[in-house]
Write a structure and sequence with these properties.
Blueprint lengths: L3 H6 L1 H10 L6 H38 L2 H37 L19 E6 L12 H6 L3 E2 H8 L5 E2 L1 H21 L3 E2 L5 E2 L1 H7 L10 E2 L5 E2 L4 H5 L5 E4 L5 E10 L18 E11 L4 H18 L4 E5 L11 E9 L4 E10 L3 H6 L1 E4 L7 E2 L1 E9 H11 L7 E2 L13 E2 L1
Parallel strand pairs: 4-9, 8-14
Antiparallel strand pairs: 1-11, 2-3, 5-7, 6-7, 9-10, 10-16, 11-12, 12-13, 13-16, 14-15, 17-18
Helix pairs in contact: 3-4, 7-12
C-alpha cells in the first residue's frame, strides 16, 4: 500500500516508478481522489463546529424562553446533521475508492533495481559452483524419480494434474530436505521456528498483497478461508494491527509448510515434473525490521538461502530482478537459480525480497522508536530457504548416477539414516 502523502509530494517520481512496473501514470487520478476525500472531510469538520455552536445557542434560547429562536436554531441543527451524514458517506466512499486504487498498485522499485520489461532485463550478481561434467547423458528428474518412488499417474487419478505421490526413499529424501533446511535456518542463522495455520482469512492475504489482485492464483474454501500460497502470509501477519517496541527488531521467523497455488496463469508452462505444482513444501524466511535495517537484512537473508544450496553441492547463481519481473509487493528481489543439467539452464529455486513498508501499511504494523511518541511503519522481507520440491529436483538431476541411483549430498546423510545413495 502506498502513502498518498508521498504521491502528493512527488507525483512525477511516483509515475516514473509505475512506468517501470509497466503501468500508465497514476498520480493525477490518485491525487484527485484524495482531494475529494480531503474536501469532504474538511467540510465535515466545519459543519461539526457549526453544529456544536448552534447546539449551545439552542440551550440559551430555551433558557430565555425565546421559542421562535429556539425553533429556528433546532431546524438549523437538524439540517446540519443531515448534511453531515451526507458528507460522512461521501468521505467514506471517497476513501474506499482511493484505497481500492492504491491497493491495486505494485510497490515502487528501489533506485538500484535495473529497469526492464521482463526476465531478460535481470542481471547476474554472482555465481557459485561448476556444472558437473557427466560421463553419460543425464536424465531429467522425472525419469530418475520414477525409478525411486515418484508417481504422477496415481496422483492424477486422485487429484488431477500438477500433483505427485512420493514413496519410499524419495519420500524420505523430501522429508530430509525440509528438516535439514529448517535446522540450518534456526540453529545457524537464528530464525525462530514457527508453526502457522494453513487456512487464513481475506484480510490476512490482503496484508501481504495476494488480495485483491491475485485472487485467481489462490485456492479458496467454501466457507471463505484461503489455503496459504506460502508461509510468508501467516508469518508476516503476526505483527499486524499492533505497535511494537523498537527493541523487538529485527525479528526473524521461519516455517516449513505445505503451499497451495492454483497456477492459474501458467497454462502450458512446466507441465512435466515437479517444477510447478498445486501443492508443495517450502521453508519460508520472514524478517521484520526497522527501516534502517532492511537493506542489510535483504543481503543477510539471501546469504542464508545460498548456504543451503552450497551445503547441498548444487551450482547456482544469484540474479537481481528487473523492475518488470519483480513480484507485486517487492521493492527489490534476488532470485537464486539452481543448475538443471537436463535442461542445460538455471531455474529459480528461491526469491528473497524486501517490501519496505508496503505490506506494513496494509497490515497496520508499526513500531515506536525509543523516546518517541509517534509510531512508524515497519519494513518486511521474505524469502525461500528453500522450496523443497525444487531442491529435490535439483538433487535428482545433479547427483544422479549412470545406474539410475542418486548420491545423497553429505549434508543430508544424517537425515537419511546414513544412506549415501538411493536407488
Amino acid at each position: 500500500m502506498h502513502d498518498i502523502r508521498l504521491i502528493r509530494d512527488e507525483p512525477a517520481a511516483f509515475d516514473k516508478a509505475m512506468k517501470q512496473r509497466g503501468l500508465e501514470p497514476q498520480a493525477e487520478r490518485l491525487i484527485d481522489l484524495d482531494a475529494r476525500r480531503r474536501a469532504a472531510t474538511a467540510r465535515l469538520q466545519e459543519l461539526e463546529t457549526e453544529r456544536n455552536s448552534k447546539s449551545k445557542e439552542i440551550g440559551k434560547a430555551k433558557a430565555q424562553g425565546d421559542e421562535a429562536l429556539f425553533t429556528e436554531l433546532r431546524s438549523t441543527v437538524e439540517n446540519l446533521k443531515a448534511e453531515m451524514e451526507r458528507l460522512t458517506e461521501e468521505a467514506r466512499t471517497a476513501e474506499d475508492v482511493l484505497n481500492q486504487h492504491l491497493a491495486a498498485l505494485p510497490n515502487r522499485p528501489l533506485d538500484d533495481v535495473p529497469e526492464g520489461a521482463d526476465e531478460s532485463g535481470n542481471t547476474q550478481v554472482r555465481g557459485w559452483g561448476e556444472a558437473r561434467t557427466f560421463t553419460f547423458t543425464p536424465k531429467d528428474h522425472v525419469v530418475v524419480g520414477e525409478r525411486l518412488g515418484l508417481d504422477f499417474e496415481r496422483a492424477a487419478a486422485m487429484s488431477g494434474a500438477r500433483f505427485a505421490v512420493l514413496q519410499g526413499p524419495l519420500a524420505r529424501l523430501e522429508r530430509a530436505l525440509g528438516q535439514f533446511m529448517l535446522d540450518v535456518q534456526t540453529e545457524k542463522h537464528g530464525y525462530r521456528e514457527t508453526a502457522v495455520p494453513y487456512l487464513v482469512r481475506d484480510t490476512t492475504l490482503f496484508g501481504t498483497g495476494q488480495l485483491p489482485k491475485f485472487a485467481e492464483d489462490q485456492f479458496r474454501t467454501t466457507d471463505d478461508f484461503w489455503l496459504i500460497p506460502t508461509a510468508e502470509v501467516p508469518l508476516t501477519n503476526l505483527v499486524r494491527d499492533a505497535i511494537h517496541a523498537e527493541a523487538d527488531f529485527p525479528m526473524r521467523l521461519t516455517a516449513l509448510t505445505p503451499c497451495f497455488r492454483s497456477e492459474a496463469g501458467s497454462a502450458g508452462r512446466d507441465t512435466r515434473g515437479l517444477i510447478r505444482m498445486h501443492q508443495f513444501h517450502k521453508v519460508e524466511l520472514v524478517s521484520v525490521t526497522t527501516p534502517e535495517q532492511s537493506d542489510a537484512e535483504l543481503e543477510r537473508m539471501t546469504g542464508c538461502a545460498e548456504e543451503i544450496l552450497r551445503r547441498l553441492e548444487l551450482p547456482y547463481r544469484v540474479m537481481m530482478l528487473c523492475t518488470g519481473d519483480m513480484g507485486f509487493a517487492a521493492r527489490k528481489t534476488y532470485d537464486l537459480e539452481v543448475w538443471m543439467p537436463s535442461q542445460d539452464t538455471y531455474r529459480e529455486i528461491s526469491s528473497c525480497s524486501t517490501c519496505g513498508d508496503f505490506q506494513a501499511r496494509r497490515m497496520n504494523a508499526r513500531y515506536r522508536r525509543e523516546g518517541e511518541k509517534k509510531p512508524e511503519y515497519l519494513h518486511t522481507l521474505n524469502g525461500s530457504g528453500l522450496a523443497v520440491g525444487r531442491a529435490l529436483v535439483a538433487i535428482l538431476e545433479n547427483h544422479q548416477n549412470e545406474d539410475g541411483s542418486v548420491t545423497i549430498p553429505e549434508a543430508l546423510r544424517s537425515y537419511m539414516g546414513g544412506l549415501e545413495k538411493i536407488g
